[in-house]
Specification:
It is a single chain. The chain has 383 residues and is mainly alpha-helical. It contains 16 helices and 8 strands. The strands form 3 sheets. Strands 5-3-6 form a 3-stranded antiparallel beta sheet. The protein has a 3-stranded antiparallel beta sheet with strand order 4-8-7, with helices on one face. Strands 1-2 form a two-stranded antiparallel ribbon.
Length: 383
């Protein structure tokens, strides 16, 4: 209502149909982006940071390029004028403490039911120039819109798609197109999407099992003793990993892909408020390397092994770590330029952060190199 009143006030010649289309489109886009924020597809409070309608139009244009779905395509109605103050008030109401909803966990079907109720009514321009909501004539005639329950849509979709997908490869079904011509809240499309996702998961699960058995993985000891050889034991998604058995030097790897491991790597969880990128970058310094050589255990082949208790004793200098460029460090490391990495990180973390002298840093570097070289030389010694 507030948005409709403002649009009518700023655009007195707008007709009721255009007004309804425009209000509906703004709300659809806003709810979509707000859900994306809580699901980490957009930066949190992006909408809250909007202060002008022009900023909002710019955001919609960027979303159109990003999602390419037609939802954000700029149409004729988008040229209407909206007051900045109304935009700010609406967006402020979408966040705590004005709003207690967690959009990231609201079931899409619940959103669909709310949307169906919203479609029952339309904005009507009264003779006095104000706006009110009225039930649409078709809703009155049908005694209200009815949202198809999820269990019913799931059954209909299952019976419809199973003959089309059964015993077919992803390549064979990739050209299928599914349309819900009488789409209201999109429940049928949601059920169809879930069916297709589950089809692909099951197809590639079976393909993975067949591939693994063809390679003989199911006969390896740790796989063989599982009830299902391909079933990974319960684990948790780490923020980063530490190499359990290091070669030239230990490393911390940021887990941006959300990979799961069992016991081949040490799992790291960062405390709330800690920037994992800074920790990962700061790990590569001469002080931490030298300390690691004294804490780790050296076995055959020059490998430096760390048990959990030893990993916990490793120290990382974090003073001024926010000045480190992780991308630069990562590029050097991939090129095998660890000396260049250490020269860069030591100058920031040890010299500026810890106020160590050049002599002290060189001494640490000498200690690390001597212990590393001694460890690596063992693999070349004859028994």
């Amino acid at each position: 209502m507030m948005l409709g009143e403002d649009i009518l006030r700023n655009n007195p010649n707008v007709d009721a149909e255009t007004l309804n289309i425009f209000v509906q489109r703004v709300l659809n886009r806003t709810i979509f982006l707000r859900i994306c924020e809580d699901r980490c597809f957009e930066n949190y409070e992006s909408l809250k940071a909007i202060t002008t309608y022009q900023d909002l139009r710019t955001m919609f244009a960027a979303a159109d390029q990003k999602y390419d779905s037609g939802l954000f395509e700029l149409l004729e109605e988008d040229r209407l004028t909206v007051s900045d103050s109304v935009i700010i008030e609406i967006f402020q109401s979408l966040y705590y403490p004005n709003n207690s909803y967690e959009f990231g966990v609201i079931d899409p079907y619940i959103i669909g039911q709310i949307y169906e109720l919203f479609l029952d009514e339309a904005l009507v321009i009264r003779e006095d120039g104000h706006i009110e909501t009225q039930e649409k004539p078709e809703v009155v005639d049908s005694q209200g819109a009815v949202n198809t329950p999820q269990n019913i849509t799931d059954i209909i979709i299952e019976e419809t798609l199973r003959p089309l997908y059964e015993n077919r490869t992803p390549e064979e079904v990739s050209q299928y197109r599914i349309a819900d011509i009488c789409c209201g809240s999109g429940n049928f499309l949601l059920s169809a999407f879930e069916y297709i996702v589950n089809y692909h998961i099951e197809y590639y699960r079976k393909a993975y099992i067949q591939w693994g058995e063809g390679k003989g993985f199911n006969k390896n000891y740790k796989c063989r003793i599982r009830p299902r050889w391909y079933h990974v034991s319960q684990t948790w998604c780490a923020d980063a990993f530490l190499i359990r058995q290091a070669h030239l030097y230990p490393r911390m790897i940021l887990n941006e892909k959300k990979a799961l491991v069992t016991d081949t790597l040490h799992k790291v969880r960062f405390l709330e408020g800690i920037d994992g990128k800074q920790v990962t970058a700061a790990f590569l310094n001469t002080y931490t390397f030298a300390l690691s050589e004294t804490l780790g255990r050296s076995y055959g082949g020059g490998v430096l092994t760390f048990e959990p208790g030893e990993i916990r004793k490793i120290r990382i200098p974090m003073q001024m770590a926010d000045q480190l460029d992780l991308q630069k460090i990562d590029a050097w490391q991939r090129q095998g330029k660890i000396d260049k990495v250490l020269e860069y990180t030591d100058s920031i973390l040890l010299r500026k952060g810890l106020s160590l002298t050049e002599h002290e840093i060189k001494l640490l570097h000498s200690i690390w190199k001597k212990m590393c070289d001694r460890r690596m030389s063992r693999k070349n010694q004859k028994k």
